[in-house]
Each structure stands twice: as C-alpha cells, then as structure tokens.
Design goal:
Length: 439
C-alpha cells in the first residue's frame, strides 16, 4: 500500500472517531450524573473534552477538516452561553495555528511551480512558516527587486485530502451536529464541497487578488497586497506588515478598536462587490489584519470569492431588506416568492415571516447598531426552538443556489461583528453599497 492511502485511512479513522468520542463522553457523563455528580459540572466537562478533541483533530488534519473548523469558528458567537467558555479558546486557536510542513517539501513545491531557477527570483525564504491556512502555509521571503513577500505554498496532496475530508464530514454530519446546537452542519459541508475546486487552484486566487488589489490601491481604509508571482500551488504576494489578526482584537481589543475594525470589516464586505464584481467569501478572523499604525484593515486570502453574475450583490437582496425594514408584509412575501426563498406550493403567514426576519433587519433600521454575542445567540436560539413561531417559518423557507455563498458570507460577517461586540453605521453602509436598499 502506498503512503497516501495509508494516510487517507488514518485521516478517515480520526474523523470517524469524533462523534463516537462525543457519544462516549456523554454516556460517561450520564453515568456520573446517576452517581450524584452535578449536571452542570458534568456538562461542562463533556463539552470541554469534546471541544479539545474536535478542534485538535481538525487543526492537525488540515485540508477539509481544518476548513470546516474555520467555517464553524466564525459562528462561535452563536453558541449558547454554557458552551462558549470551553469552545472559545480552541476555536480561536484553530483560526491562526496549524502544524508546519517540512522545509524541503516547501522547496520542492516552489521548484515544481516556479521552475528550477526559483531561487533567482525568491532570493531569501524564511525557514519556518509565519501562518497556516486550511490547504497551505505561508512563509516570509524577499523578491529579487528587494520587496518583502508572502509565499503561500499548498500542502502536497491537499486536493485529495480536502475532498476526502469533506466527503467524510458529510457522512458524519449527523453525528457531529450535537456538538453544535443550532448550526445546520450538512448544508455547510455541502457548500464547502462546492467551492473546493476553486480554492485548490492558486492561479484563480491570484486572479481575484489582483482585481481586489487594483480596486483598493491607495485606499485610506484598506490594504490588499498585490500578486508578485503565482502558479497552481504557489502564490507569491507583497508582504503585509501587521502584528496580529482580527482574532487578537476579539480577545483583547479595546471597545474603540472593536468598533473601528468592525466598521471597516462591514464596509469591506459590502463595498468589495461594488468595486470588483466579486464577494470576499471567507470572513474568518485570520484573513483580516489590523494595522495599528495607520488604522487600516489589511485583507488576505482570496481563494474563496463569489464571482457575481451582475458584478454586484443581487438588487433583490437590497430591495427585500428595505421592504422588511419598512414592514410591508404582503410585498415582502411576494418578493421572497419571486426570488425563490418561498416556493410556490408553500403557504406562510406574512406577519410571521416578518416577525422571523425582523431581528435580522434590526441593524438596518437604526443609525448605529451594536452587534453582540447576546444578540447573535438570541437569533440562533429562536429559529432553532420548536416552540418559537420563528422555527415554523424557518422550516418553510428555501435558500436559492445563487444565494448560498452570499448567505454564508453574510452569516460569517454577522458572527465576526458579534464576536467583536462592534457598533457600526450598518444602515449607511447598506445605503452606500447594496443595490436596491436605498430608494
């Protein structure tokens, strides 16, 4: 048997053990409760150990497993209060850390993609990685013209590992789901599978990053490094000097910093489509780098972008948010049907639909809105509580295919703003950048 299949079997076994481990710990916890241990203490221990096993496994396996973990990490603000403490440290660690690949492997990848004379262009390369992504790692280097550069190198076999992990996670979604109450795991994995091929091709990422870098060049609020060289598995870009990622601001930032970078995050996510025709669709903290000296926000990783057919976010999206904000229930349901959010054969109470959407529209109703973990958690709880009318409405709504990536990005962005506990002029940002919202 060759090396890769053995590794594949080992990866599959470790992923398969995740729901089994959770079930085992739950059974042990139940036994301890029968023995007189306090229920709250047992629950905390089970969740702590589950978090440690789950995110340690995801981080070590990289590939689809780590990408799945990163996608979940932006939703940390939605987890219930009793689960937040054991998960938070593991989620945040996963956003920034992963074990490195050997130096010789990095050099082999560079030669394969940039050619045998790559050392004449890349005149210096740091021996250890400065950052890790789900399918590659980043080294600092120096280009022949004197520029400091970031060299992103894809892990060998990343494609096979990514697809294998995602197939395995799709099969295990039901077993993993109890670890994340209120988060629908299966469609999340399906959407990651649909985007995997694009993210594996660094030449596509380079193309998107060039467009974003040109559109935001000399912007007073944002810095996007330009592309220096690229291939299918290697991407060389200008170096972005930043001391930490947005995860640091989430953990330790002042309220002023949280508000400032939260507003910039919202502005970037909504202005990007207007300026580039594409949506940066991977809003996890590691991709956003505060620059304290200038107050700017650096943006990295353009592997996951939505290339928008009309070169902007759907006009209907802005129109529907405005209609919901203005509480026109009949027009709202008609518009949702037209866009495919409510299928023709589904009957709904228009007022319940508005009640369901109202909290999500709340940030667009006021001049400034304070996002918070409490607000985000409340939304998840009500749409996942069978006794809440919002649950019934949620089960009747459909998510059209052309909104899948937009929806994930929107949800991830709200999750980050809520983790930051940031206040932002959200309504004005929508008026400036979302077609159909401003009248």
């Amino acid at each position: 048997m060759t090396e890769l299949p053995r590794k594949g079997i080992a990866r599959g076994a470790r992923l398969a053990a995740l729901p089994l481990g959770y079930a085992g710990r739950t059974a042990v916890g139940f036994g301890r409760r029968l023995g007189g241990a306090p229920a709250e203490m047992v629950l905390n221990e089970v969740q702590q150990r589950t978090a440690e096993q789950l995110f340690r496994t995801l981080g070590e396996l990289k590939g689809g497993a780590m990408k799945f973990g990163q996608a979940l990490s932006v939703l940390e603000a939605a987890l219930p209060d009793e689960l937040v403490a054991p998960y938070r440290a593991n989620l945040t660690k996963l956003q920034d850390d992963a074990p490195p690949m050997p130096t010789q492997t990095v050099r082999d990848q560079l030669e394969n993609d940039l050619g045998p004379t790559w050392k004449k262009q890349l005149v210096w390369l740091d021996g250890g990685p400065t950052a890790a992504a789900s399918i590659g790692q980043v080294h600092k280097g120096r280009w022949s013209d004197g520029r400091d550069v970031a060299v992103k190198v894809q892990y060998p076999g990343a494609g096979e590992a990514l697809m294998s992990d995602l197939r395995q996670l799709a099969r295990l979604a039901k077993g993993i789901a109890p670890v994340f109450p209120g988060i629908d795991i299966k469609p999340l994995v399906a959407e990651l599978q649909a985007r995997a091929a694009d993210e594996l091709d660094y030449s596509l990422e380079a193309e998107a990053q060039r467009v974003f870098a040109a559109a935001f060049r000399d912007d007073p609020d944002f810095v996007i490094p330009d592309v220096v060289a690229s291939g299918e598995k290697v991407l060389v870009t200008e170096w972005l000097e930043s001391p930490y990622s947005l995860a640091h601001v989430i953990r330790e930032g002042t309220q002023t910093e949280r508000d400032h970078y939260g507003e910039l995050l919202a502005r970037f996510l909504f202005s990007g489509p207007v300026r580039t025709g594409m949506l940066h669709a991977d809003p996890h903290p590691g991709n956003f780098r505060p620059m304290p000296d200038t107050g700017q926000l650096g943006v990295l990783d353009f592997g996951a972008v939505a290339r928008l057919p009309d070169r902007h976010l759907p006009t209907a999206m802005g129109t529907l948010i405005r209609i919901a904000r203005d509480a026109d229930v009949d027009q709202l349901v008609a518009g949702l049907r037209e866009e495919g959010f409510i299928k023709d054969n589904v009957r709904v109470d228009p007022h319940l639909v508005l009640d369901y959407l109202a909290p999500f529209i709340e940030p667009a109703r006021v001049e400034r809105f304070r996002f918070s973990r409490t607000w985000m958690r409340a939304q998840f709880e009500r749409i996942n509580n069978p006794r809440d009318p919002a649950f019934t409405v949620a089960t009747k709504l459909n998510l059209p295919a052309n909104y899948l990536l937009i929806h994930r990005t929107w949800l991830g962005g709200l999750g980050l703003l809520s983790q930051l506990e940031a206040e932002a002029p959200f309504r004005a940002i929508l008026e400036e950048n979302l077609p159909g919202f401003a009248v």
